[in-house]
Amino acid sequence: MLLGVSPERAIPLPLAIVHADHTLVVADKPAGLLCVPGRGPERADCLARRVQQRWPDALVVHRLDMATSGLVVFGRGAAMQRALSIAFAERRVDKGYEAVVAGLPADDAGEIDLPLAADWPNRPRQQVDRVAGKPSLTRWRVLQRDPQRGNSRLDLTPVTGRSHQLRLHLAAIGHPILGDELYAPPAWAAAAPRLLLHACRLALPALADGPALQLASPAPF
User: Fold this and answer.
1) Annotated catalytic residue: which of 21, 45, 65, 94?
2) Measured between alpha carbons, how far is 135 from 91 in angstroms, rounded to an integer?
């Protein structure tokens, strides 16, 4: 399988629901769609609003960047939202991502342990801050190398959940994600029509009277 991406992948896809029951809803967010409303009427359309049109009691538990696609869970009702939020905070939710990155990592797997903090003068950018940054850990594994294109497909597991963690961690070790307009050098930012980062795995513990779930969404690039 080649690691290129076709231009049509940059077009937001119709809303896809991966799982829905009386306790929660899991949607597959397309790239380019906000998770929650932004400022101004032109940024009112978002994943939460679309999900709530069908399930009015669906409440936001976590978010993906606008540029990132993949699995997002909503709790149905305040009690389930709270239970899911606690599960995320206690790291009882397993999240997995796929990304296509610049370069060919020398190792087959590794960890990135770099503290992160907001880059206030340049928001929404984040930065590595070894003094005031919060501990941040990412595990990565090579799925495929493409020497012809000079890029690689990685499986990513964020142990912590800092803002832009995967994007910044990979850029910091010299392997920025293709299509990343915030952290990739211009040539790699322009190498794909979207950010090639997708939330592909989500494993949820049994909560309330709902079942434990293991959900997957293939990367659309």
Assistant:
1) 65
2) 14
